[in-house]
Amino acid sequence: MTVNEIDQTGEYANYSSRWGSRVRLFVLHTQEGPGTAQSLANYFRSAEVSYHYVADNSTCIDVIDTDYASWSVLDANPYCINLCFAGSRASQSRDVWLRQFGDAIDYAAFLFVQDARKYNLEARVIGWDEIGRGKSGGTDHQGITEGLGIGTHTDCGPNFPWDVFAAAVLKHAHGQAVVQPAPPAPNLIDAEAVRAGAWLGARVTAGEQPLPGDTGRIATFEHGSVYWKQNAQRAIAVPSALMDAYSQYGWETGALGFPIGDHTVLVDSSGAPWGDVQGFEGGALYRRYGQPGFAVWGAIRERWNRSGFENGTFGWPTGVEVTNSDGSKQQQFERGLIVWSPDGTTALKPVDGPDTIVPDIH
């Protein structure tokens, strides 16, 4: 190693007590911008964020004493030690990691082993499911996101050379180089099951089932299903309350496609929960509790959104989008109808006599 370690602990104020928590995770981070270890450490002198260590390929700055909590991972701060690779990005390639950060990665492994001995951690890289089960070891910021459901960070990114880091950990732990294969890629469906576990419930089907055309995989749970699309960075759970409606649109092979975001519980004007919504590739699926669910998409969805969604002029969708003989499309809502034609959308609200045209809001 050719990394020079500089102790600057005691020069920074952005840290907290660990409040009696046992250190159990050594967490790697990217900076997401240009910089050196010293320039990043200088930034912490006035910022409300910090790491225990910041390292580039020649220098490692000790910023916060590891007996204290740095401000790096929100509610996980009390039990984590955090190291940031200065000048790195989660999107960078494996080649960039090895060429520009090879010595920094090796030194990070050295520090991990050193702190593992001090705090009685397991000196090994652990999976997201193990993080969720309270195991100790090494991970990155995405491990905090996926394993604990804290935050939304995905660094160090998909190309971080975990095989190289893990081999370096073994080298420093045992005094000799040990070849270790890359750890298996985290199972994204399992990670989503941990993240959504509060409402998703226990797994019903063993393992995962491939989807038609090998487009992804699905696993079924007590209160929903988890979908993973081929090459996606995460899996997404769909609650049972929406699955019946989703099936009417042909599941992931139909017009809605795969889910693209978490479901949201919607509330009425009094703040009481009264339905669910979830975004899909082809539109959004809405279901008012006690009623069937319906998809809203395209120009009709845009017009409905402008009217105030389910709390607006037209209320919840109550029917599927229908194509008329002249090629126009229409969809029924609780308090009106929205029609699309090549000339635009028209919203109609029923009254005594002819329906009233509702002005658009742009």
Helix content: 10-25%
Indicate the CATH architecture of the largest domain.
3-Layer(aba) Sandwich
> What is the CATH topology assignment of the largest domain?
Lysozyme-like
Helix/strand-derived class?
alpha+beta
How much beta, percentage-wise?
25-35%
GO molecular function, one term: N-acetylmuramoyl-L-alanine amidase activity
Domain N-acetylmuramoyl-L-alanine amidase: 12-157
Pfam families: LGFP (PF08310)
Protein name: N-acetylmuramoyl-L-alanine amidase domain-containing protein
Describe the structure.
The structure is a single chain. The chain has 362 residues and is α+β, with helices and mostly antiparallel strands. It has two domains: 183 residues, Peptidoglycan recognition protein-like (Lysozyme-like); 169 residues, no CATH class. 25% of the residues lie in helices and 26% in strands. The protein has nine helices and 21 strands. Strands 1-5-4-7-3-8 form a six-stranded mixed β-sheet. Helix 4 packs across helix 6. The longest helix is centred in the N-terminal third of the chain and has 26 residues. The chain is elongated and about 85 Å long. One of its GO terms (molecular function) is N-acetylmuramoyl-L-alanine amidase activity. InterPro entries: Amidase/PGRP_sf, Amidase_domain, LGFP.
